[in-house]
């Protein structure tokens, strides 16, 4: 199997790129581990299901049009329920990349000249005492149930975080018939009111703003309190979550002396921020930069969305978490970048106006994402939650205290990879996807060095656990 | 200019253990590495403690004849040292010396195993012959294809994640200094002293350190470092792969190796099964500068896993969670290089060989050499002098 372009990730970035690439007669394969296209935001119901009012708001219209266009395009090849476990470079020769993927039937290798990684982002996990109790979930996990299948995975929800998404999730839970006991923002209300200092941006994005106001109204009308300056201190329960203990934070995000408050709930949804899924790009050795508010370690790229690895393009959240609209534009830009690289810059003058328009819209969306980040950045709150007994690495059960004492006892350790080797944090089934950002911050703080210098965990093959039996059954072409 | 008695280049098991043995004896030691402590082969290897004769020694009569007189004493010294290490280092290093099995699946392999067992018994190594059934009785779960095995009760494994940092902490406690990550850019000897020029990895500032002696403990890159001292050292980097499964119920009590296939198997205390045996990854050309992660060879990974499943079928039902690579150094005769260069007084090296199993022993012996300025008997066959023809026009 040999393609001009393999795209990993059929979210907004991946589909927008595919739509352009096939128009220019490039052969394109889109791979996604989900059952259908759409990615995180346009998570579709299973084929044959209908979900009433699925993403009916106007703000989703452009994206859904793009999605339908791609789905209707017979030139695009798809592979769903397929996980990319690893990618290697083929030096010198074309094709330039070998993608190693797994599906229910086994594993296979796919070759491609160019590669576009549009693997998106995932929820930022935070650690606090009790965070490993059953019932503590990521808001995105809850949303995955509710959005695509209208399943409410629990009885009574508390949402805690700093991201406005939690209002949307609360609204979706309520619409699907669930109960929400409260929504708690760690930052003070004044942080949100700052948005009004940028009235021009609000006006330009009035559609989104109105949609959001609508969510707020519905949540409030349902009698759900939206609180500010409060966050989770502990999750309590015997076998599973029974209560969420909340504490007050001052405007700097530091806990205040005032009394804690306990709210009964069997589900706690955490919604702080997002972490870019840059592991496949890092497996290939692409350069990354650290930016906490934009999603941790982000893949660096040039103006054509090409990473430091020639032929490897990136788009969407893995370059900086900025939302679906920006992801689509980046996907388009990456598509033009690939076309340009394949055909040569001279052959691409016909696209100049299109490219200019994409760039302009991208700049516009960046205004919005910059504002959103300013409002929702959890800043130091994830660190505030960390108590010595809190578990950082859930897979290997490594606590904050373990990390602190390891750093104290081993002064020669100052990178995430070497602390991983010493503590097993990040060595479990999730490959460190969830604990990396916390560990990086802990090291940076204790050693007083920048996070960039601490660096990410070395991204290893396979990106997700892979059945030994499937590897044995595979027949490599090189044999 | 900072001055030390000994500057050790390389913070792997050999460098850190050397630092410990020297600092403990009152020597002023500095350890430097361009990367983190234990980030080289020492933190990436299989952790097997294999004391049975290696395949290449059984195959090469000449080498065997030369080696045999030294091997047993070295092996015995190694076994004794390992047994006392947890207490000496004062921490859990994941050491399990419960024994190791080397299995055979075909008549040809059985013949090879026989020959090996004869040599080993002759030279006094503690090995026991087991039939296939006896092997399965000892280690349930071994496949029916195993037809014979040699059992060595002293073998086992130690956790590579823990050993080298433990040495480093003890070395530091004894007064050794671990410098900020820095790369050696030049080495020169003037007025009987060594000048080690190094560049900080973060920031790039350069500094010169003075030392009476330099220990080249830079693993697979030892030849590059030697060249900086104007010496040839024919040691070549090879990239190997290691894999680990998800945690599984306790099945493996012993280290399992294969006499005719590249395979090593062990289960760590957390339940994960480690699969290795010397399958190669693709070395990147930039690996010469210490950069460039080797590329995993999936065809070799498959062969490695196939060998594992043939011997221990339970592996087939598990998930692979990680495959990684490491770079180690080998010489033409596969023996380590340990000692002082005649052409460059005060320039020592310890590299190559089964550097995890014997790393602590190599380091201890080399430290003795440095402290007494007399070559320990056991190191005689490993001296860099065997390459002195290459250095006729080199040296300090
Ligand atoms: C819980 C959550 C809720 C969000 N809600 C909103 C919202 O309301 N509005 C908004 O604008 N943005 C939202 N976002 C941000 C969202 O990520 C972007 O809007 C948009 O989906 C990003 O597009 P993308 O193409 O970069 O990535 P994604 O849409 O995340 O798509 C990435 C795709 O890559 C696939 N993938 C990743 N790794 C592999 C692999 N190894 N093998 C195979 N497939 C792989 C994934 O299955 C996924 O489908 C949300 C994000 C999260 C995590
Ligand atoms: C996958 C694999 C499996 C193995 N399995 C086993 C096994 O089961 N049993 C066994 O006995 N052996 C095994 N080995 C071999 C064993 O790991 C090595 O022999 C041993 O770890 C070597 O230790 P070292 O200290 O010499 O080198 P290393 O641990 O590689 O340390 C060398 C250090 O030197 C540093 N360095 C190099 N050049 C410079 C420079 N110019 N400036 C500054 N720093 C520099 C490097 O950054 C590195 O940290 C295995 C090796 C590999 C790769």
From TrEMBL, chain A:
Protein name: FAD-dependent oxidoreductase
Classification via PANTHER family: ANAEROBIC GLYCEROL-3-PHOSPHATE DEHYDROGENASE SUBUNIT B
One Gene Ontology molecular-function label: oxidoreductase activity
Keywords: Oxidoreductase
Domain BFD-like [2Fe-2S]-binding: 391-445
SUPFAM superfamilies referenced in this protein's UniProt entry, alphabetically: FAD/NAD(P)-binding domain
Organism: Pseudomaricurvus hydrocarbonicus
Domain FAD/NAD(P)-binding: 3-131
Species classification: Bacteria, Pseudomonadati, Pseudomonadota, Gammaproteobacteria, Cellvibrionales
InterPro entries: BFD-like_2Fe2S-bd_dom, BFD-like_2Fe2S-bd_dom_sf, FAD/NAD-bd_sf, FAD/NAD-binding_dom, Metab_Enz_Cyan_OpOx_G3PDH, Opine_Oxase_asu/HCN_bsu
TrEMBL record, chain B:
Keywords for the protein's UniProt record, in alphabetical order: Membrane, Oxidoreductase, Transmembrane, Transmembrane helix
Keyword Signal: no
A Pfam match: DAO
GO MF term list: oxidoreductase activity
Origin superkingdom: Bacteria
Segments crossing the lipid bilayer: 6-23
A Gene Ontology term for the protein's cellular component: cytoplasm
Record-linked InterPro entries: FAD-dep_OxRdtase, FAD/NAD-bd_sf
Keyword Transmembrane attached: yes
All copies of domain FAD dependent oxidoreductase, residue ranges: 5-368
Protein's name according to its UniProt entry: FAD-binding oxidoreductase
Organism for this UniProt entry: Pseudomaricurvus hydrocarbonicus
